[in-house]
Write a structure and sequence with these properties.
By secondary structure, this protein is mainly α. It has a single domain (3-89), classed as Ferredoxin Thioredoxin Reductase, CATH 3.90.460. The chain has four helices and two strands, in the order αβαααβ. It has a two-stranded antiparallel ribbon with strand order 1-2. Helix 1 crosses helix 2. The mean pLDDT is 96.
Amino acid sequence: MPEDELESEILEWARKYAQKHHWTLNPDTRKLEIVIRGLARNEKKFGERYCPCRLRSGDPEKDREIICPCIFHEEEIASDGSCHCNLYFR
């Protein structure tokens, strides 16, 4: 799949996920593009949409926690107003 197609697919997926939870995506389109590009790069390189803002350990079992949406995102959005990557906003 060409990279821009994958990025479009991930952006659409993220948009639907945000809508479902009554959140919004980052209104700064430049920052949003950077996160989406990082997710696409990780999916192509590692086979999973690992959060581009967190370090992979290399242990697939442990790294499952940082597949977007990571296990931390809901708590971060509730407490900080956005997730660590600034992909999702309250």
